[in-house]
Amino acid sequence: MVRGPPLPFPGGAAKRGVPVTDADMPVPERTLDATGRLCPYPIVETAKAVRTMEAGAVLLVLATDPGIALDMPMWCKATRNEHLGTYQADGRWKSFVRKRAG
User: Fold this and answer.
1) For range 30-50, the mean pLDDT
2) 76 catalytic per annotation
3) Please, which residues have CB within 8 angstroms of residue 78's CB and are 6 or more apart in sequence?
4) Percent share of the chain, pLDDT over 70
5) Taking residues 74-102, what's their average pLDDT?
6) Which residue among the candidates 13, 39, 53, 57 is catalytic per the annotation?
7) CB burial class (10 A; 0-12, 13-18, 19+) of residue 102?
8) How far apart are the first and last CA of the chain?
9) 38 vs 21, which has greater pLDDT?
10) Which residues make Cβ contacts (< 8 Å) with residue 44, sequence separation at least 6?
11) What does the CA dihedral 12, 92, 82, 11 come to, rounded to 10 degrees?
12) Pairing status of strand 30-34 against strand 58-63
């Protein structure tokens, strides 16, 4: 399994240098498969998906574009959604987002 460096995971393992795995993440209510698509598709589709979700719900975005590792945390900050983590596993990137309350 190929893994990139873990990205910020608020209060979690990545801050301590421990690799992030699926077991560290909440079970997503929805999964968006953006594999094979380049920027800006993963972020545009994430925005559409999050709009349809309940506050507090978790979205998992699967992507092969490594740009998601930088784009997703920035998008979450700009939209005040919570970036739970982005990491590489099983040959693709996995990014977890929790929809903000209200």
Assistant:
1) 97
2) no
3) none
4) 82
5) 95
6) 39
7) exposed
8) 38
9) 38
10) none
11) 10
12) parallel
